[in-house]
Design a protein that fits this description.
RNA-binding; three-stranded antiparallel beta sheet; Rossmann fold; 502 residues; Helicase, Ruva Protein, domain 3; 4 domains
RNA sequence: GGUGCCGUAGGCAAAUUGGUAAAGCCACAGGUCUUUCAAUCCUGCGCUUGCGGGUUCAACUCCCGUCGGCACUGCCA
C-alpha cells in the first residue's frame, strides 16, 4: 500500500532512494495478564533482530485493554524480562488504557462512515444462534442480524434496556490476501471470518464501550507507523480481519510475518500449564540471558552458516532475515537449552561467575562472607565447568558451606573399609603440623598415608573424599580439600569420619 | 464441524532455491582423561524427505489427492 502510493506520487528514481530511507518500525505488544512468557519473548527477539538488522525502531506497547486481568506487577515483570534479555526498546512503553480517546475517535469515524454499527443482540440470543448453527453442522458465526436496524428498531431495543456492542462490517464476498514474510501468500474469504466483528464492548447507545484487541491493535499500529507486524502464528486468523480494518481506516497495510510457535514436548502451543514458561522463572533457575536469547533465536531461525550454534543477539541481528525462518512449530527442548547454557557458563571467568553465584548461595541460606573473594572465586573456578544452571551450584557446593554435612550410605560404607581408619589417621597427623594447606602438601600427605597404612592410593583417595565431603562423588578432591582447609573444617570432618571408621 | 497453516532421523535443523539428501547441534551408546561425578576430546548411532500419484532427463523442492499435527473459530489478548 505504502509503496504503491509512493510509486504513484514520485518519479521512479526517487522511489529506490526513499525505500532505503524509510525506517523499519516494529513493535512487541505484550499483554500484562501474566509474566513475560517465553513465546512472547521469542516474538520480541525476532522483532528486535529485524529492527536492529535494518537500523529501525523497536517499540514496546503494553496491551492492557483487558481491565479484568491486567496487573501492574505483570507489566513490571515484562519490562524487567525484556531488559534482562537485552531487548532494549526505542520507544515506549505505551499503554493502551491511556489511549482510549484515540480508539473512540476511530470508532466514531467508522460509525459515521457506515462501516460499523450498533448491535443489540443479547448474549443469550447469541448462544442460541450458535447452538442452532452447530446443530445444523454449520460453523458458528454472527449472522449480521442487526446490520440494518431502523431508527425505530434501535429505539425499541434501547427501550427494552438493551446495551449494544459495536460491530464492524465484514463483507462475505471479500477475498483477503497478503504476502507473509514467513509463509508466502496467505488468503482468506470474508465469509470465513465469523460475521461482523465486535470492536467495542457493550455500553449505553450514546457512548462507546471498551474497544477490543483486534481493533485497538490496528489503530495503534497505524498511529505508531508500524511498518512490519511480526507476531506468532496464532495470530494469522486475525490478520484478515485487521487488513479490512486498515482499509476502513484509510491506512496503509503493513507487512506481516507470522513466526512459528514454540511447542510443548507434546506438540501443543506452549502454555503456562507446561511448567516453567516465564522468563523470570528461567532466570531464577540460573539460565543466563545470552544462552536463553541464543536458544530462542535458534528455535525457528538458523544463521546463514547453519553450523553456527552459538551467537549473541547482536551477531544474529547482523545476519537476520525472515528467509531463514522455518514455517513449522518447534518443540521446546530442555536438553539443548541446558547444553547451550552450560557452554555459556563454562566461558564465564571465575570472578564474574562468583558475582552471579553469590545470590544463589545466599538464597540457599549458606553462611559466608561475600567479601571472602579468593575463597569464593576458587570455589567458582572449581565447579564452573560442571554447571548447567547457576542454581546447580547450591547442591554442588553444599559440602563446602555447611559445617556438618553428614555421611551418605555409600560414604559410610567406604569409611568402614579396612585400612581407612589408619589412612585417615595418618592424614590427620600430617595436618596437625600444617598451617595453610597447599596442593603439593596435600599430595605428599596422601603419599604418606599410602605408605603408613599400607593401602592403595585409590583407597586413600576414596576414603578422603568420603570423609571430607560426605559423599563418593563431587568436584575435584584436592581443590575441595584446600577450600575446606582454608575454613578450618577439614580436620573436624576427618575426626567425624574416624569415629565411623573405627 | 469450518477455515488456515504445517509435515526432512527421538528433538532443533541444513541442502547454492528442481541437480548426488540426510551437513551441523542436542539426546543416546561406547571409549578417553581422572581419586569420583561432571566437563573435555574421540568414535558410533539414526536414511531416502508423512503417504500415493503426476510433471520432468532430474522432485525434499512444482501440481493433484490423501493422512496426520497444530492454530484459530469470544463482547480474551
Amino acid at each position: 500500500m505504502t509503496m504503491l502510493e509512493v510509486r504513484c506520487c514520485f518519479p521512479l528514481f526517487l522511489f529506490s532512494s526513499l525505500i532505503s530511507v524509510m525506517s523499519v518500525r516494529v513493535r512487541i505488544a505484550p499483554s500484562p495478564t501474566g509474566n513475560l512468557h517465553i513465546g512472547t519473548a521469542r516474538t520480541a527477539v525476532f522483532n528486535w533482530l529485524f529492527a536492529r538488522h535494518h537500523g529501525g525502531q523497536f517499540i514496546l506497547r503494553i496491551e492492557d485493554t483487558d481491565l479484568e486481568r491486567s496487573r501492574p506487577e505483570f507489566t513490571q515483570n515484562i519490562l524487567d524480562g525484556l531488559t534482562w534479555l537485552g531487548l532494549n526498546w526505542d520507544e515506549g512503553p505505551f499503554f493502551q488504557t491511556k489511549r482510549m480517546d484515540l480508539y473512540q475517535q476511530a470508532i466514531r469515524t467508522l460509525l459515521d462512515n457506515g462501516l460499523a454499527y450498533r448491535c443489540y443482540t443479547s448474549e443469550a440470543e447469541l448462544d442460541e444462534m450458535r447452538a442452532a448453527q452447530e446443530a445444523r453442522g454449520q460453523a458458528p458465526r454472527y449472522d449480521n442480524r442487526h446490520r440494518h436496524l431502523t431508527p425505530d428498531q434501535e429505539a425499541a431495543f434501547q427501550a427494552e434496556g438493551r446495551l449494544p456492542v459495536i460491530r464492524f462490517k465484514i463483507e462475505d464476498g471479500r477475498e483477503i490476501a497478503w504476502k507473509d514474510m514467513v509463509r508466502g501468500t496467505v488468503s482468506w474469504r470474508g465469509s470465513d471470518l465469523g460475521g461482523d466483528m465486535v470492536i467495542a464492548r457493550r455500553a449505553p447507545a450514546d457512548e462507546i464501550g471498551q474497544p477490543l484487541y483486534n481493533f485497538v491493535v490496528v489503530v495503534d499500529d497505524v498511529d505508531m507507523n508500524i511498518t512490519h507486524v511480526i507476531r506468532g502464528e496464532d495470530h494469522v486468523a486475525n490478520t484478515a480481519k485487521q487488513i479490512l480494518l486498515y482499509e476502513a481506516l484509510g491506512a496503509a497495510v503493513p507487512e506481516f510475518a507470522h513466526t512459528p510457535l514454540i511447542l510443548s514436548p507434546a506438540g501443543k502451543k506452549l502454555s503456562k500449564r507446561d511448567g516453567v514458561t516465564s522468563i523470570s522463572d528461567f532466570r531464577k533457575m540460573g539460565y543466563v540471558a545470552d544462552a536463553l536469547g541464543n536458544y530462542m533465536t535458534l528455535l525457528g531461525w538458523s544463521p546463514p552458516d547453519s553450523t553456527q550454534e552459538r551467537f549473541t543477539l547482536a551477531e544474529a541481528a547482523e545476519q537476520f532475515s525472515f528467509d531463514r525462518v522455518t514455517k513449522a512449530g518447534a518443540k521446546f527442548d530442555w536438553d539443548k537449552l541446558n547444553w547451550l547454557n552450560s557452554q555459556y557458563l563454562h566461558d564465564i571467568p571465575a570472578d564474574r561467575l562468583t558475582d552471579l553465584l553469590i545470590p544463589y548461595w545466599q538464597n540457599a541460606g549458606y553462611e559466608f562472607d561475600p567479601g571472602d573473594r579468593p575463597w569464593l572465586e576458587q570455589l567458582a573456578a572449581l565447579i564452573g565447568a560442571s554447571l548447567v544452571r547457576l542454581e546447580d551450584a547450591v547442591e554442588m557446593s553444599r559440602y563446602l558451606f555447611i559445617v556438618d554435612v553428614g555421611f551418605s550410605d555409600t560414604a559410610t560404607a567406604q569409611l568402614q573399609q579396612d585400612g581407612t581408619a589408619a589412612a585417615l589417621q595418618s592424614i590427620l597427623d600430617s595436618l596437625a603440623s600444617t598451617q595453610t594447606l597447599t596442593a603439593d602438601e596435600a599430595q605428599t600427605m596422601i603419599k604418606t598415608a599410602v605408605s603408613t597404612a599400607s593401602v592403595k592410593k585409590g583407597l586413600v583417595m576414596r576414603s578422603l573424599r568420603a570423609a571430607l565431603t560426605g559423599d563418593m562423588q563431587g568436584p575435584d578432591l584436592i581443590q575441595s580439600w584446600l577450600l575446606l582447609n582454608q575454613h578450618q573444617i577439614d580436620q573436624r570432618r576427618l575426626q567425624q569420619a574416624l569415629a565411623i571408621a573405627k
